[in-house]
Amino acid sequence: MSLFRTLSCLSCLALVLGGGLQAAENQNVLSPEQAYDLYAKALINVDAQSARSLNAALGPLFEDKEVLDFQEMLEKRADALTEAIQEVQDLIPESSQATLDPVIRDMLTQAAEAPRRTQCKATGSTIAPDGKTARVTFACDVVEISAFTDYQTRLKQTKFIKFDEEKMKYSIEKVIASLKTARPTRRINGEIVFVSPREGYWVTSDISTLMSPLRDFSRLE
Questions:
Q1: 3-state class (DSSP) for residue 79
Q2: Confidence tier at 92 by pLDDT (50, 70, 90)
């Protein structure tokens, strides 16, 4: 299982565009751009306040049910991290697992945290004449974690070949140092479609595009 798929926690999103829509007046009207910004901050930056604001704005549309179960997302991220740590542990001799466990945990934790420093912002939107759909353009300054993904690939390719515990510890510590100082270095631009099931509400089910700035995780197959 890839770290991208697990840490993005797609299964914890209750983004239902079907029945149960309410006629209640929306007291937290958002533009398509504002809706995108909240989605991005909640999912990419794992920002609790943005998740609360998104739920408050869209709650009346879904009988006041949470659009994003933030606590469940955190739990799934924790489970995914535990699984990823075990996957790395399985690549090293059992006799070295206890010694290397602290640095492996630190590396995987930093690999999960570094992408949260990615910054995404809507740059504009075009609303269809019927007011039912909007194409939102966005720009993201992405944190690269290639030091980790490259190391993960090498580790899988050289499993148990001339294993050197001290050398591996040193290599992992270098990766950790790189992840801790990683900052946005690459700009990507994109477009995503939002729909308006009722006037004043903008939602999307295109989670793949929302999470695309974290695509580096897809290399962790």
A1: helix
A2: confident
Residue 13: beta bridge partners?
68
* Identity at 114, one-letter amino acid code: A
Q: Half-sphere exposure of residue 200, counting CA atoms within 13 Å on the CB side?
A: 15
Single-letter residue type at 175: V
Residue 137 region, left (φ>0) first, then alpha (ψ -120 to 50), else beta? beta
- pTM of the predicted protein model: 0.81
- Distances in Å between the Cα of 198 and the Cα atoms of 17, 37, 121, 192 are 11, 20, 24, 19
The total of other beta-carbon atoms located within 10 Å of residue 117's CB is: 14
- Rounded Cα distance between 162 and 12, Å, is 41
User: Can you read off the two tokens belonging to residue 120?
Assistant: 């995404």
